Amino acid sequence: MKLICVSNEEEMSLEASRLIAALVRIKPDAVLGLATGSTPLGTYEELVRMHGEENLDFSRVRTVNLDEYIGLDGNHPQSYRAFMNGYLFDRVNISPANTFVPNGMAEDLERECLEYDQLLEQLNFTDLQLLGIGSNGHIAFNEPDDYFTAHCHCVDLTHETIEANRRFFAEGEDVPTRAITMGMRGIMSSRRLLLLASGKKKAEAVAAACFGPVSPRVPGSIIQLHHEVTVIADLDALSKTGLFEEAD
Ligand code: GLP
């Protein structure tokens, strides 16, 4: 595991966008595994800037997102499809046909999961998978469980995750309780994992995921088994790792 320690969220975003941009320049038809949540927002902002000012070209890039809420249409402002369109896809020269997000409104959700896994196989998985981490250690929507789930699947979100995501929804609006998520096979089959974390509220999850035992109780801990993983985290997010304790 390569750990890049930065001083704040802004630096995290700059480092992450540089890595992603370098990949896109080296491999213009790269398959990017993308994530939602507040963590990658600055990264997407910087990629948009690079597209506008430095000719970063997305015309041949394909993207596969990690997850989507069940029951939200892609036009719903809190759907992950709308998030990706608004923060990245509509602002760069990517072809909409090359962007994939699970369909949370699919009539046959089991089929949707199966087809999402087939899509990943057809794309030969991703060149890079961007990941955030939930405060309970989840990656994508793989929640803490007794076992790791390999395939794309539907999941009941934990109370903690529902509450954490409530901030994105209007007051009184129902927060979805279920989601479709890429499974661990899809994530771990990526050629490179890039996990981002900032802020004190991620400190326990980061310590457990990066340095604790590999366990489905901390889904993010599975990244320790990947051969090419980069973690970019700020000092607050690393504050429970014990890496920066003052010597006596
Ligand atoms: C959601 C997403 C995850 C994301 C997590 C953390 O649950 N499904 O992919 O990593 O939230 O979100 P945030 O970056 O807003 O803290």
List descriptors:
single chain; Rossmann fold; seven-stranded parallel sheet; three-stranded antiparallel sheet; 7 helices; 10 strands; binds 2-amino-2-deoxy-6-O-phosphono-alpha-D-glucopyranose
Description of the structure:
There is one protein chain. It contains seven helices and ten strands. With 248 residues, it is an alpha/beta fold. The protein has a single domain (2-234), classed as Rossmann fold, CATH 3.40.50. The longest helix has 18 residues, at 9-26. It is globular. The two termini are 28 Å apart. It binds 2-amino-2-deoxy-6-O-phosphono-alpha-D-glucopyranose. 2-amino-2-deoxy-6-O-phosphono-alpha-D-glucopyranose binds next to helix 5.
Helix tally? 7
Q: Tell me the count of domains.
A: 1
Largest sheet: 7 strands, parallel
CATH fold field value? Rossmann fold
What CATH first level would be assigned? Alpha Beta
Helix/strand structural class: alpha/beta
* Broad shape: globular
Summarize the topology:
Blueprint: E1 2-6, H1 9-26, E2 31-34, H2 41-54, E3 62-65, E4 67-69, H3 80-87, E5 99-100, H4 109-122, E6 128-131, E7 153-156, H5 159-165, E8 178-181, H6 184-188, E9 193-197, H7 203-211, E10 229-234
Parallel strand pairs: 1-10, 2-3, 2-6, 3-5, 6-9, 9-10
Antiparallel strand pairs: 4-8, 7-8
Bound molecules: 2-amino-2-deoxy-6-O-phosphono-alpha-D-glucopyranose.
